[in-house]
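ok trying again, last paste got cut off:
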Amino acid sequence: MKKILIVIMIAAFVTAAAALSFGKSRKSREDRYRNVDMTKVTCSDLLNEKDTQAVTAVLIWIDGYFSAKTGDMVVDVNQLKRLADRLEGYCRDNPETPILEAVKKSRRRKY
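nice, full thing came through this time. structure:
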C-alpha cells in the first residue's frame, strides 16, 4: 500500500511539474517544467492556472507533502475538496502568499 501511495505522489508531482505554466517565463514549455520549486509557487499562480488537471495535481501533491509530515497515509477525496475550497478562499485574499504557506494558514490541522 505504501508503494502505491508513493507512486501516486510521484505521478501527481510529475503531472504538476509538467502542467503548470505560471506564465512567468518565455522559455519553452519543456524547459519551464523540468523543475518546479514548489516553495516559489504563489496563490496567484495557482488561481490563474487554467488547466484544471494541473491544479488537481498540485492539490494532490500538497496533500501528499503534508500527509507525509504528519504520517497520514489515507487519501481522502472529500478532504482534498475541502482543502481546495479553503485554499481558494484564502488565496483570493492573499494572492502573493506562497502556496505552501497558504495551506498551513488555511487548514485546520497544524503541520
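cool. The chain has one domain: 2-106. The chain has a mean pLDDT of 76.
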